[in-house]
Design brief:
The structure holds two protein chains of two kinds.
Chain A: H1 3-8, E1 11-13, E2 25-30, E3 40-42, E4 48-50, H2 51-68, E5 72-75, H3 85-95, E6 99-105, E7 112-117, E8 127-129, H4 138-154, E9 159-164, H5 167-170, E10 176-181, H6 202-226
Parallel strand pairs in A: 2-5, 2-6, 6-10, 7-9
Antiparallel strand pairs in A: 1-8, 3-4, 7-10
Helix pairs in contact in A: 2-6, 4-6
Chain B: H1 4-38, E1 52-61, E2 66-75, H2 80-95, E3 111-118, E4 151-157, H3 159-164, H4 169-186, E5 190-197, E6 215-216, H5 217-220
Parallel strand pairs in B: 4-5
Antiparallel strand pairs in B: 1-2, 3-4, 5-6
Helix pairs in contact in B: 2-4
The chains are: A alpha/beta, B alpha+beta.
Chain lengths: ~230, ~230
């Protein structure tokens, strides 16, 4: 049993409400990995690619875009390794991040799906349960999702917003959003393309990463402009 | 020269063989018909004596990431547990249809049981608690009358359904929300829903959506023009 799993059964000592951040840190969580391939996505060529590879490629791409803009990035995995959901949240919470993105890919639906935690918003407290640590951050997570939505829609992508119960996100003490890339059939798909663009397409991933980086930069500037203290 | 009595015996035996063959052929055909009759693979056998009632089903759409309500007429049994199972069975049957807006294989047979229990004390506070922290009472028998008040529905799905469910945040979330919303729309006392797979707790439905949580049905009903 991991430390995170053990902590799940008892109210855990969460990090105390932190002081205003001096450093803007982003956590990128490439979902799945190791013996957990996630969804298996079929490409138009007939080949298939596991979700874990797509999320890792997107994480690497986004990390380099953010690092080039002077943003500190913490990733939950850098290779094809299995990472427990509790461990992912632990990495994010230790980083004292101002934005956390959980990256996913799917064959279902179209466009980009943005999900925030479905936990009910709660007041920050010194002691919060590990499994519902995100409750104190839901309001800011929804605001972060709004910024991501604007940036993605600005590039012409189809975006849907929703709430979900995702174990890794629910334990994160930071503004956290799960980004799920689905096949693209929106305006960006040219008329010459008869097949939807697969999430494994490098060009599609690059456009998504660019839009996410733009959104994170805006989120950073909003945070410094308003000097909103974290909950 | 063959003796006459041997010819008679031969003819009698030949006729007897033909008759026995015909009888065996008839028995085989009868057994085959009986076997086919027992192999009715219809997912849900509608209760013949139950009158049709109107039921509201919340259908998910992957393309729109939304739930929409539709009223259908279904024969529903009087027992609350069986009624809840029949409604969910119809919902999953329609998801298993070709060209469904939210395609999920399995059909009605994917719901093994639905148990209705009184919500433990601390109702909503326990909603997000991990398993083992809520002291749920033992499942009541179908004949047991539940006290008035909010109910917790425990939906037991088959492992085949969970293993065959498409993997993805959106699709898994929509399945769970449509089940919760459909239960609440038809049995308003159901305030919370928990999921089991083959009678056991399971971490996620197909790698994403948390199945260890207690879901509040009020959160699953979409308001007009919004996504879940």
């Amino acid at each position: 049993m991991t430390l995170a799993a053990a902590a799940a059964s008892i109210p855990a000592l969460s990090q105390a409400p932190p002081a205003p951040a001096t450093r803007f840190v982003v956590v990128l969580d490439a979902a799945h990995g190791g013996d957990d391939p996630g969804a298996i996505l079929k490409e138009p060529s007939g080949a298939s690619q596991p979700e874990k590879s797509i999320t890792l490629a997107l994480s690497v791409h986004l990390r380099s875009l953010l690092a080039a803009r002077g943003i500190s990035v913490v990733t939950t995995r850098e290779s094809d390794t299995a990472v427990d959901p509790g461990r992912r949240a632990e990495i994010a919470n230790r980083a004292n991040a101002q934005a956390c993105l959980s990256l996913h890919a799917t064959q279902s639906g179209t466009g980009i799906h943005l999900f925030s935690s479905s936990l009910a918003p709660a007041e920050p407290a010194r002691l919060i349960p590990w499994k519902t640590a995100q409750a104190a951050w839901v309001t800011r997570s929804l605001a972060f999702a709004g910024v991501l939505n604007s940036a993605l829609q600005h590039t012409g992508m189809t975006v849907t917003l929703g709430r979900t119960a995702l174990p890794a996100i629910d334990s994160m003490a930071c503004p956290a959003v799960a980004v799920e890339i689905a096949p693209e059939t929106g305006p960006e798909t040219t008329s010459a393309q008869t097949q939807p663009v697969s999430p494994s397409d490098a060009g599609y991933q690059a456009r998504v990463a660019q839009a996410l980086a733009t959104a994170i930069l805006e989120w950073r500037s909003n945070a410094s402009a308003t000097e909103v203290a974290q909950p | 020269m063959i003796p006459r009595h041997q010819t008679v015996i031969f003819v009698v035996l030949l006729v007897a063989s033909i008759v026995m063959g015909a009888v065996l052929w008839q028995l085989r055909a009868r057994a085959h018909r009986r076997l086919l009759a027992g192999m009715d693979t219809t997912p849900t056998q509608a209760p013949l004596v139950a009158p049709s009632e109107q039921a509201t089903l919340y259908f998910a759409s992957d393309a729109e990431n939304s739930l929409s309500a539709e009223v259908l007429s279904l024969p529903l049994p009087p027992s609350p547990n069986a009624r809840a199972r029949a409604i969910l069975g119809k919902l999953l049957d329609l998801y298993a249809m070709p060209n469904a807006a939210h395609p999920v294989a399995g059909g009605a047979a994917s719901v093994t049981q639905v148990f209705l229990l009184p919500v433990p004390d601390g109702g909503s506070a326990a909603a997000a608690s991990p398993p083992g922290q809520t002291n749920a009472p033992a499942p009541p028998t179908p004949q047991m009358e539940l006290p008035s008040g909010p109910q917790l529905a425990v939906v037991n799905l088959t492992g085949a359904f969970a293993n065959g469910h498409p993997s993805g945040l959106e699709t898994e979330t929509l399945t769970i929300l449509s089940i919760c919303a459909t239960l609440h729309a038809n049995m308003p006392r159901i305030a919370q829903v928990r999921f089991l797979v083959d009678g056991q707790p399971r971490a996620t439905l197909a790698g994403h959506a948390d199945l260890t949580r207690t879901y509040l049905t009020a959160d699953a009903i979409p308001t007009e023009g919004t996504h879940p």
